Batch of 2 targets.
Target 1
Amino acid sequence: MTYLRTTALCALCALCTAPALAQDAFDLDTITVTANQTDTTLERSGSTVEVLPADDVRDAPTARLGDFLTFQPGISSSGNGPLGTTSTLRIRGLGGAYVPVLIDGIDVTDPASSGGGFDFGGLTNAGLGRIEVLKGSQSARFGQNAVAGVVNIESLRPTEDGVHGFAEVAAGSFDTRRGVLGLTARTDRTDLAFSISRTESDGFSASAAGTEDDGFDSTQANLYLRHQVTDIFAAGLSALYIDSRAEFDEFGGDGPAPFDEFNKREVTGVRLFTELETGPVSHELAYSTFETDRVSFSNGTPTPFKGERDRIEYRGSYDTGGVWALSFGGDYTEEEDLNQKIDIAGLQAELLLAPTDALDLALSVRHDDHSEFSGELSARAALAWRIREDLILRASASDGFRAPTLSQLDPFFGDPTFQPETSVSYDLGLEKRLDGDDFIRVTLFSTEIDNQIFFDGASTRCGSGFGCFETADFEGEGVELSGRVTINQFLTLNAAYTFTDAKQNGVDAARVPRHDAALGLEAQITPRLDGQVTIQRLSGITPSTFAPANNLVGAHTLVHVNGTYQVTDNVDAFLRVENLFDEDYETAGGFNTSGRAAYVGLRASF
């Protein structure tokens, strides 16, 4: 790891003095809205970003959105059963506690959860659009918790003027039914989008030792509005609502009769924003509120969990239209659960430099003042050097921090004396652009965390009687390979491979695949019929200490098939088969995963 860190630092130092190249930066069109504080084209981003367009998200070959994201390099997940049960997304070996998730600018991580992360268990692609995954420590951009990266999700957006809509119905295995309705409107000044979905499934037993099905039902609605009030002033809002019920199993089986374990969850989020352009300076002021209210029922006994977050933020940017641009801003956040309350105030600044047509630098700094701890200073340096028109070198060095969650500070499970975790992250990547959208990319990465807080089921230090939060050190490094090649006008090949060596106190981190490979073949079979085959192979996975001795966590291969047939100009029929060869495996020891499952549906636009 020392060698990788030294290599990345040397690259940053050397490339900062790179000579100017007599060429124009090529235009890839694709914009990243997360890598820097201001929108940046991908070829000018020094950070590693995966961008998934809305069409790819809509046609995802898996029901759960988190499982679909694992086809990208560096991303893996583990789940505790069928749709609706807990599912954790990991970036480069680090789980949900280190991955803030934003939906339309609303931070949807759960303030009342033990780790403070987002549960992908019940989130599907219904009503969602473009997704960006930003990798590496990003506390200088997003504050605490952004140690592994950030997932930024957009809901439905209008793509053309006028009023349009779509409706979708689907059904399949485990008596699963889903309906989605989306409406959009666009004028020269207004963008409006609304979607609502309903998902119901009888599921299967979450516990590998169980026999009864664990069902799930959920209603989700998203709203987005932006109106250009005058030529220089715009205002808007985004809103999210989720109401779900998910059955689960007590660890080790169905639990005592009458097998009534389930979670009820209600999530509400709203973000109001204004934008003002005053010459070369732009301003954005936003207020967001998020609330998650969930109750866990076991043997007829309810256990409530409630978390709230209120946030106000200001972002400004001064663009000279030349070789540099300066962004700045501040935010104030309050979080609380049923027992405690904290507040965090942050100030940040970012300088973007383009000393040559071929070189872009981003220097970011942020200071966070946490009500329970001393201030934390985070920094990031990133560069993108277009060595040639078709060759990009990226490098970044950044640090991050993560404050203990409210649950981790509670003496019952945790320790009120816990201090924030601190981290440092390095990236070094090379991307070769091919014809069109084709590319080949390799990225080396490294992350270290001091005083990582984790749950130790054998600890008796706290008052719970069945485990406590403790601290350890984390080291993770590896390499990501990915690419896209157009074979001919009918076939396109996508591939990704990640090697991850992640250790906690010198021991392999649990549930992190050492080798993760994905291969996808897209085929335009006829003018009206297209299909896709996705193959994923994972190996070198260490079960957690909670896994039973007979667990099935280990190497496995999954094959998914999906296709779409254009029935008319406005109606598509689709088929999705997950786990085609009925692989028997587990991602969390003692919890089932889906066998072969098939789903069919219709999608109509109007």
Target 2
Amino acid sequence: MNSFQLPTILCGPIVRRVEPEKAYIWIALCNPYHIEASLYKINSNLSYQLIPTKTDTKTIQMGNQLYVYLAEIRPSEGTLPTNILIGYNLHFRRDSEYLDLSSFNLLTPNSPQSIVYGQLKYPTFIIKNTDTQILYGSCRKLHSEGEDTLVQADSLIEKQCINLDNRPDSLFLLGDQIYADDIADPLLPVISIIGKNLIGQKENLHQLEHRLNQAPFQTSLLQINGRQYIMENFCQFTSTHSHNHLIEFGEYAAHYLLSWSPDLWDLAHEHNLFKSFDEAVTNNEIYFVFTTEEHQIKEQLFEKRKIKKRYLEQQEALTSTQQNLYKIRRLFANISTYMLFDDHDITDDWNLSFDWKNNVFNAPLGRHVVANGLSAYWAFQGWGNQPDSFDSSFLKIMRKYFHSLTNGEVTHYLEKWVNLLWNFNRWHFVTSTSPKSLFLDTRTQREYEFHPQPVKWIKHIKEHPPSPKLISEHGWQIASQLLIESGWRRNSPLIIASPTPVYGLGLIESFLNDYIYPLRVVGVEIQNKIDFEAWKYNGRGFTEFLQLVATWNPSQCIILSGDVHYASAVKSEVTFLDGQVLDIHQYTSSPIKNMSFSGVGGLLMKLIMKWNSLSRKNKGIKRYCDSSYHIVKTTIPPASYIWTDNLKYCSFEEGSIIETNNNLGLLSITSNLINNKLLENK
């Protein structure tokens, strides 16, 4: 397998958590360096004033050529300036070698490599304590249809780079930053080769699953299109697109680097890692279910044509992705970015049900892949959100695992590492934005209920367990404690980031719940085909959410979400039996790049939604929740209820209440105004 020297900067810099007391900058390198940061106060006349600071940089070596750094930068005195532009540079020292960002052409004006906007000398960020502007969204698949709307975010900041009133200060990525279960055919060999070079060797997966030593798995594991059976039967995963699913940590790491930085793409082209379909076939790099046996020739020809069509379409989509990565790298270098996982960051349907979680945990290879995915999430996304959440014992176990991985001794630390990640309960975090934002982990803190729930389809009736609570009682306790520790106070505005919308589009959720979900009674495995995990599918969990927020009593409650591959805006007035009223603004933006409503079925769904939006626009929908936690539409609630709500779907600039094209939300909050709009590629 190809071995080569990787570029010094693999990815970054990325601005992560910022607050008056400190700022964090993340970067990944292929070699060990001592890193210091310089900060500059940029005045209105574009003069630069050095801010005396101290840098404390933590380093994790994750492979022979993979070092991830998180630089904590504190002012030597006082606090960092707020509501003013702050520029930064990074300085790298190793023995007698001294480099900074300019050494890599990242500060060169008009260079495609530059991460600097306009006439500025350095990449910049803002710490706002008032009048915030937040970009938010989810779901970005590299080979998906349409343009990447993160490019629109880069263009917006480029235009407003010194106009702080109109420049966004934070970027919230609300899940599915990668699609680990849906990798493009032309990209898998590149990921595999780069992953091996990052770590230094391939993982010995045969220790976990001995059947990988047998035909055809010993070869299909390394081939394009060769992993579907392995993921379904050896890992117990349920994704229908897992023919190229990521497995090893090096593969997850390589995919993150390729998703956020152009440098490894240039390297891959330089070493001819991207192959044409015919080259891949000639080199036996593609797995075909049907063999060349005489009685299967027709089937293989049909399969080959189908895979070739998919391969060429994905190849074309990846070309535009690579071109956009220079702008996306610049965006990440110039805005404080917070990231939370959803299922595709690990695998589709992750923790969807108790059976799913139990089956995967009891499959050694499945348990291992989930832990690898979580390790990569922590290294590339989670670490920079609220670094204090990860104590020395957490870092020690992670360091030992990566050390053993690099040296081929995975089994020695495997159990501690797996248990740490499967049981870790501190993925929630609170940002220091203004207002503060509570990010909710709706994947690992679920509660599965087992009391029977009757389901009816025509004349068939059967009992099934209900959909899970997306956050358990213990999970809520952790979230509440984090909110208190953050300094947030009652009667202050609060943003809640929930990957899954608390208030989705009722038409879709009700249609699935009323007409699709009941197919379970006749044996259709519908739970894994369509994700039944909206908040309202578990009335008790939905109610606990509302009741807890009511006890917090924010002056404004704004919920930001993604996940559902459409954008919407909903206002809800919730009234409890004791007369307390809770006003909620729900804003959803998705997908950043992964339009899903395509084909005949997608067109039909779009037409239904457009028709439904006309009937719902500017009209209220009244509901109540009864003592059994059933949520019922009504014009007049009964005398006894837990809560009622009045929903209003708000329209976008074009007049529709829903947008299914690629989009990115932009939320502007002032002392007396909330404004939400979408950035789109028209």
